[in-house]
Amino acid sequence: MVKLSSLTRTLLRYRIVHDKDVNIVSITSDSRTVQPGSLFVALSGYTVDGHNYVLESVEKGAVAVLLERPNPQVRVPQIVVPDSHLASAIVADAFYGHPSDRLRMIGVTGTNGKTTVTHLIERVLADAGKVPGVCGTLGARFAGRAVELNNTTPFPVELHGILNDMALAGCTHGVMEVSSHALERRQNAGVQYKVAVFTNLTQDHLDFHGTMEAYLAAKGKLFSRLGNAYGGHRGDMSYGVLNADDAASTYLAAQTVVECVTYGIENDADVRAKGLHIGPDGLACDVHTWLGDGHLQMSLTGRFNAYNALAAIAVGLIEGIPLEQILESLRGIAGVPGRLERVAGNHPFTVLVDYSHTPDSLENALDTIHEFAKGRVICIVGCGGDRDKGKRPIMARIACEKSDLAVLTSDNPRTEDPEAILDDMEAGVKDANYAYQRILDRALAIESAISVAQPDDVVLIAGKGHETYQIIGRTKHHFDDREVAKQAINKRFNG
Ligand SMILES: CC(=O)N[C@H]1[C@@H](OP(=O)(O)OP(=O)(O)OC[C@H]2O[C@@H](n3ccc(=O)[nH]c3=O)[C@H](O)[C@@H]2O)O[C@H](CO)[C@@H](O)[C@@H]1O[C@H](C)C(=O)N[C@@H](C)C(=O)N[C@H](CCC(=O)O)C(=O)O
Ligand SMILES: Nc1ncnc2c1ncn2[C@@H]1O[C@H](COP(=O)(O)OP(=O)(O)OP(=O)(O)O)[C@@H](O)[C@H]1O
Ligand SMILES: N[C@H](CCC[C@H](N)C(=O)O)C(=O)O
Ligand SMILES: [Mg+2]
After folding, report:
1. 45 C-alpha vs ligand 1 centroid, how far in Å?
2. What is the layout of strands, in order, in the sheet containing 104-109?
3. Which stretches within 408-460 are classed as H helix?
4. Of 207, 216, 402, 434, whose Cβ has the fewest other Cβ atoms within 10 Å?
5. Which residues, in sequence order, are CB contacts of 362 under 8 Å at separation 6+?
6. Ligand nearest to the CA of 153
């Protein structure tokens, strides 16, 4: 519990309507989670305005409100700020006693690979006796707890709350995915990163950022916000980890004053893989680092996972873990949920569920599959609604070009007309002579692909990975590609 005055002291530009010091027991930006004694933060949303819930929050017991436009209907103290989003980060950070200072924060950004890299880092740190907490697309997990999240990077109040829970649970490290949306919206204001990792930059989210330049600039903010100082002494310094094979890294290195470690396969790098071998059951390569050499063997496969592993190795070395131990940890990782995840069973072909929902990740997933597929490759893919429209025809073309049969279907249509999304996709393939089907219903699309799969074929179900829902309109329906695939396999082989 803290006094409201101790929170407002952290702000410079604000005024209070109905000034009175009160005790704040919790803080939230969602009226649905307000409790007696809460400070409610009204955020101007993208589709919904949190200011509409001020009255409701007070009725539920909020004792103060932080907002941009005061509400004449309520009598509790109202702290009026120019930007409630930024102010909520500053106030939440103070309310929780600056939790990110109590953790070594590792931020991972980039178009693809963030979830995988955070997962690998988690394992490397845990095996070395550290206590990592992780926060990202798969939710937050720490100390045996799992918290579901709406966003890859939570909004400020939720984020600082999670970091506080991690610190209280004894975590030593906070490993988090930092999405470009979050960087642009300053969702992680107040989080001081000790290590900033960049995976890669390819097309996605142009609906939000407009241009690739703006998208890159958003990613750059993770690096520029490492600050102009680089820490007090070795062990407390900040570092960057950059992909030497991605042209964007030159720009990112220029955004920060901290020392950057590079990793790569093609170009010279501080952590470099050589002699890479990709197989159906994993990958292997020699690893040369500025701290010695070793051999990596992993059950995650695909060239892109070699990059993810190199990034995790760089972070492990920065954290002072011996190379041999890092490699041992990576060797022990079975897989990441929804990332080239195999649907188990006795069927004579392979079914993989993968979260490739960008042109680059789809291409990578299909290229990797071609490295080991003995039969045909069948690809089921859709594109999300209310998201970058530009990637739709490109993804359809990649699916058709890189597979023997493509089935175009729905992903999460959200508020868009699913047929119109498929029209956008089909525009990329209509004029060519591709073998593809268009089946709107995702379950039927999966069933259709599985019904024609022959021994040794590989069926890739792309786009939704670990997701256990399909968003149609504003409703989340239960839907799990892995379950649907299993049902289709059962139907085919057991009637
Ligand atoms: C389009 C978009 O970005 N929407 C985000 C936005 O939602 P919104 O404006 O519709 O608003 P809302 O959450 O429904 O309501 C606005 C405010 O009112 C409050 N509210 C709302 C209802 C209520 O009853 N009471 C109440 O207090 C909400 O808590 C919120 O503070 O604000 C919400 C947080 O409050 C986000 O969860 C939500 O992200 C949605 C789920 C989303 O899908 N966002 C995508 C674009 C996104 O951010 N993706 C990135 C990256 C993905 C990647 O890396 O590929 C991510 O980090 O997840
Ligand atoms: N380093 C990489 N480069 C390119 N593609 C990758 C890389 N790592 C993973 N992928 C592909 O991208 C998909 C998503 O991977 P992952 O979930 O790790 O990325 P992400 O950056 O967290 O995605 P999101 O932005 O949706 O959270 C995987 O299923 C795989 O097909
Ligand atoms: N974090 C990404 C996930 C996309 C997953 C895909 N299944 C879709 O719905 O487009 C986003 O919000 O854009
Ligand atoms: Mg992710």
Report:
1. 7
2. 145-147, 139-142, 132-136, 173-177, 104-109, 193-198, 239-243, 259-264, 271-279, 282-289, 292-298
3. 418-426, 442-452
4. 207
5. 356, 379, 381, 395, 398, 399, 462
6. 1
- Is 441 annotated among the ligand-binding residues? no
List Cα–Cα distances, 109 to 116, 144, 158, 240, 449, in angstroms. Answer: 11, 25, 19, 11, 34
Distances (CA, A) of 162 to 1, 31, 148: 17, 18, 11
Q: 355 CB less than 6 Å from ligand 1?
A: no
Q: What is the pLDDT of residues 162-189, one digit of tens each?
A: 999 999 999 999 999 999 999 999 999 9
Neighbours of ion ligand 4 (CB under 5 A): 114-115, 137, 177
Which ligand 2 atom sits nearest the alpha carbon of residue 339?
29
Which pLDDT value is given to residue 233? 60
CA distances from 318 to 238, 245, 261, 291 (A): 10, 20, 9, 10
Q: What is the Cα 74 distance to its own chain's centre? A: 38
Of 401, 399, 308, the C-alpha closest to 111 is 308
Distant-in-sequence, close-in-space partners of 7: CB < 8 Å, separation ≥ 6? 24, 39, 91, 94, 95
Tokens of 273: 């893989």
Q: In the numeric block, which tokens belong to residue 276?
A: 């890479």
The pLDDT assigned to 282 comes to 87
CA distances to 233, 341, 399, 416 from 278, in Å: 40, 16, 21, 39
